[in-house]
Amino acid sequence: MDWTDRHAVAPDASFDGGDLDCGNGLLLLIRRHIDPLDAGQVLEVRSTDASVEEDLPAWCRLTGNALVSRTKAGAVRSYLVRKGGRARAAEPRGRDGLPAVPVVPEPLSPAPPSDFRAPPFAVMGVGSWPRPGWLLRSLHDRLSGRLPDDEFQRHADDAVRLAVAAQERAGADVVTDGEQRRDGYASFVGGRLDNCQLVPLTDLLPYVTRPDHFAEELRALDVPAEQVRHPAVFGKITRSRPLAVHELERARRFTGRPIKVALPGPYLLARTMWLECVADKAYPTREALAADVVAALRQEAEALLAAGAALVQFDEPVLTEVVFARKTAGRSFMCGALGERRDPDEELAFAGELLGAVLAGLPKGRLALHVCRGNWSRDESVALSGPYTPLVPLLKTLPVGTFFLEMATPRAGDLEPLAGLPADCRVGVGVVNQKLDRVEPVEEVVAKAEAAARLLGPERVLLNPDCGFATFADNPLASAAVAEAKLAAVAEAARRLRSKYGVG
After folding, report:
1. Which of 71, 357, 364, 458 is 20–30 Å from 490 (CA)?
2. Strands of 66-73's sheet, edge to edge?
3. Measured between alpha carbons, how far is 106 from 249 in angstroms, rounded to an integer?
4. Which one-letter DSSP state was computed for residue 325?
5. Residue 406 C-alpha from the chain's centroid
6. Nearest Cα to 432, choosing from 124, 167, 46, 156?
7. Cα(471)–Cα(377) distance, rounded to whole angstroms?
8. DSSP label at 93?
9. The domain 13-82: what is its CATH number?
10. What is the pTM for the complete model shown?
11. What would the pLDDT profile of 431-469 be if each residue is shown by its tens digit?
């Protein structure tokens, strides 16, 4: 595109990026200013960095926006970018300016007792459930500002109803809402925390140390990378609205069974949200960012427990990335792929401090931790591999009552390391692999569960898949039908085991 003396149209918004280049924060600032605009509106970007001349047109082509014109005045360059997509529908907003969440009617099911304890061999999913295609379209329209929030909430309620009903038909003792409202198991907090924003992964390409390798990984997703979003921090993060309490309250309209709610763990968030090029505008160090992450998660955990969550589970898959990533070619996808990582021992100690700060003093029996080795691809050969041995010393120190662990895949190693976990904790043993279409025979599930019962005692064993069935909304690893069939096989195995051991 040629330079012009003046722009032919007036911008609807503008900002000055100074000398930032596209690999040092400018793209995320563009995203911050262009997202509130309606499709067709124009953003002016002012910059003194020469490299933007080539990088900005490429970004526009990648994201579906249009470079309208560009001018020069001395060292200052001015670019007009027209936002792509359809016109955005108006959305209701609260007094704080945040998108309003419709009032939820009184729940139909009672909150569980404060001393809730799942029976031996209790069956439950890890968290996510495959989303209907129509919900995925609504989710993307909502994230892009094209669908009003109240309409999205109605669509999500329908999807939650279906997910809960499937779990109940399968025989789950504890259900989840299937994380139907989330774009991903962890990134969704970027749309809920103050001064945090969800941006497409394509916007982060300039910030990674190996962009060619990162681009190759994005292509392996089988999902358009611009549809997968990542939280980026633009200021001090706070929790002025719930992260997941509204999910719990709405799910209770559709079930009388106990409900588990999963949250991303503090170490996971500290790793994925720490992008130096942006985060250091508000935080001098990753530790400073982590302190506010801990505060927000602590508030959310307290609110979920008070609202009647039977279990609050924290997901920390990055722990395996810490101990196994240097030994294998495997990856756990975006889990910590961007944030800095130091010495493994130092990282594990840091993770323990963060989890301890979130969980201290809360009812241990209603707290859980989930650890796996990555759930972004059905190809077992690309995921992390290794036994729980190097993690057991950390897990022993955490004030949680239940560990939900990946054990069905050979990548997880043997059960024996779990004997080192505290005798008063319970272990949710992965007995089916959510990555495989094959539905495991009940006899096979029973055999895996019995091995755990011999090691830990039947009273301590709970049963679950290795991970969620749809950790990332656009990349489910199982269909809803396969997910229900696998959970049903686990439930039948649980019935046989309870009868054999006389428990439950």
Report:
1. 364
2. 13-16, 42-47, 76-82, 66-73
3. 8
4. T
5. 17
6. 124
7. 10
8. B
9. 3.30.110.40
10. 0.81
11. 999 999 999 999 999 999 999 999 999 999 999 999 999
